Amino acid sequence: MIVPGHADSVGTASYYGKEMSGRRTANGERFNPAGLTAAHRSLPFGTKLQVTNLKNGKSVVVRVTDRGPFRRGRVIDLSYGAAQAVGMVSTGTAKVKIARLEPR
């Protein structure tokens, strides 16, 4: 369920993948490129987000485990698995809508 009162944000997503496999994320977990995780600059670790590719309508639910992106103009970095789920691996970036999900 999307959290009431939290506006959706729209921006450019990128992804990071196999080159980071096994490295520690900012929350201390080991990065799994096939996992459904993301890096966000400020949201608390563990926050679940629904990320929707605005070009094709595909969406995925990810969990924030890392900090980033550090490239200007980007709002979120997705794991390779999440990028595959929303269909952005071939393009490298995509315009996405991000909605914070209510904890269950």
TrEMBL record:
Lineage of origin: Bacteria, Pseudomonadati, Pseudomonadota, Alphaproteobacteria, Hyphomicrobiales
A family per Pfam: DPBB_1
Domain RlpA-like protein double-psi beta-barrel, residue spans: 10-98
Database matches in InterPro entries: RlpA, RlpA-like_DPBB, RlpA-like_sf, RplA
Gene label: rlpA
Similarity field: Belongs to the RlpA family.
NCBIfam families to which the protein is assigned, alphabetical: rlpA
Known EC number: 4.2.2.-
Function of the protein: Lytic transglycosylase with a strong preference for naked glycan strands that lack stem peptides.
Cross-referenced PANTHER family: ENDOLYTIC PEPTIDOGLYCAN TRANSGLYCOSYLASE RLPA, ENDOLYTIC PEPTIDOGLYCAN TRANSGLYCOSYLASE RLPA-RELATED
Name used for this protein in its record: Endolytic peptidoglycan transglycosylase RlpA
Organism listed in the record: Labrys miyagiensis
Keywords linked to the UniProt accession: Cell wall biogenesis/degradation, Lyase
